[in-house]
Design a protein that fits this description.
A 9-stranded mixed beta sheet has the order 3-2-1-4-7-9-8-10-11, with helices on both faces. Strands 12-14-15-13-16-19-18-17 form an 8-stranded mixed beta sheet. Strand 10 and strand 11 (253-260) form a beta hairpin. It contains 15 helices and 19 strands. Helix content is 30%, strand content 28%. The chain folds into 3 domains: 3-65, Arc Repressor Mutant, subunit A (Orthogonal Bundle), CATH 1.10.10; 72-259, Vaccinia Virus protein VP39 (Rossmann fold), CATH 3.40.50.150; 268-389.
Length: 390
């Protein structure tokens, strides 16, 4: 780890150049003898990224950043805070410590936190940053986490964020294709804790993960501003139904929707009514399409559309619209409806893509009109002309 970054003049240079074009800056000679311009530019890029992703790290002086990839792979403050609220107790061990965002938030919920990281330079950086952040109850361990675990006592929680192996590209994304291999090491994990929390990429297929793992009691699908960021699997050796918990964290407030994975539900279907609802990204990833209809007493437009309708407006975990017209897909009708040739277009269970529709109709993106190109219960393509309800 380069402690030279901590020299006041270098820290000042980094802060003063946060808005400088780094593509131009990287070709300039470093004004400091003991640090290269490439290293300084990496600190600038990472600090800029930290401003929105991990503001606490951005605001603290003398934080050292790792390479860009380590920062990109780390949790954001908001998702780390959500995870931390799932755990509690005396101790938790993070087997894939990385840049330590998750551990920092775990330290607010657990008395003792163990951060395991095999990369010695990254482990040094994290150790330094934890001191700056005054996270005194975190112990950093620079060794193979599974080997360390074999000789350790029991923990209240084990946390693991396995990374996909490079040679697994192009394959179906399975946990067995990741390092560490969680399914292969489940016995070891349960020897040292009764509770395991696993974070995975949002592209992981949920059913495949359930098939690979044992004792899954909860799955949390975490979206940030309607973009799914993480899937979280809680494993416990106890008899329990599998609960799916979705959250969409937004600036306006959080949207929650939970359901039982195994429970059989029967949705209802109707033609479009006065209001239209589009579930948020976390619910779409979870596949709770039937449960939305049953729990919220909404009618689905079609088995494959995943759009919902009602006569009375309800509070809904996603976008809400008022339907002003229902029209067939004809260029002449659209021309009359949209004299400015502007609209926000969404397709759900429709034979053409948004790009194809825009090319065919000449409708540009924008404006206050929302067009949903979809299929109704009679298998007829239609356009729902809507206004968004904020």
């Amino acid at each position: 780890m380069k402690t030279t970054f901590l020299q006041p003049e270098i820290q000042q240079f980094i802060s003063e150049n946060l808005n400088t074009d780094t593509k131009q800056l990287i070709f300039k000679k470093s004004p400091f003898e003991n640090v290269s311009m490439q290293e300084i530019v990496n600190q600038i890029i990472c600090k800029k990224k930290a401003k929105t992703k991990i503001p606490i790290w951005f605001e603290k002086e003398n934080i050292i950043f790792p390479n860009k990839l380590n920062l990109e792979q780390s949790s954001s403050e908001k998702t780390a805070e959500y995870k931390a609220n799932l755990v509690s107790g005396n101790s938790i061990i993070d087997l894939t410590g990385g840049f330590g965002i998750d551990c920092f938030y775990f330290s607010k919920r657990c008395k003792n936190v163990f951060h395991c990281e095999l990369n010695s330079e990254l482990s040094e950086i994290v150790t330094h940053n934890f001191k700056v952040l005054e996270a005194t109850n975190i112990k950093t361990v620079n060794q193979d986490s599974l080997e360390y675990l074999k000789n350790a006592e029991k923990f209240d929680w084990i946390y693991i964020d396995p990374s996909r192996r490079n040679d697994a590209k192009g394959k179906v994304f399975l946990l067995a294709d990741c390092l560490p291999n969680v399914p292969e090491n489940l016995d070891l994990l349960f020897e040292h804790s009764d509770k395991v929390l696993i974070k995975t990429s949002p592209i992981l297929d949920i059913q495949s993960a359930i098939n690979e793992l044992q004792f899954v009691t909860e799955i949390h699908i975490v979206a940030l501003e309607n973009e799914v960021k993480e899937l979280l699997f809680i494993l416990e050796k106890k008899e329990s139904f599998l609960e799916i918990k979705t959250i969409n964290i937004t600036k306006k407030g959080n949207e929650y929707f939970n359901f039982n994975w195994e429970e059989e539900t029967i949705p209802t279907f109707e033609l479009p009514k006065k209001y239209l609802y589009e579930p948020n990204a976390a619910i779409l990833k979870a596949g709770g399409f039937k449960q939305i209809s049953e729990q919220l007493s909404l009618d689905k437009l079609h088995q494959n559309s995943h759009l919902y309708t009602s006569d009375e407006l309800i509070d809904f975990p996603g976008r809400k619209f008022e339907i002003s017209q229902i029209v067939p897909y004809q260029k002449k009708i659209l021309k009359k409806l949209l004299p400015e040739k502007k609209a926000n277009i969404t397709t759900r269970n429709f034979p053409e893509t948004v790009a194809q529709i825009r090319k065919k109709t000449g409708i540009k993106d924008g404006g206050n009109t929302y067009l949903f190109f979809t299929t109704d219960i009679n298998d007829k393509p239609c356009i729902l002309v809507c206004k968004k309800i904020s």
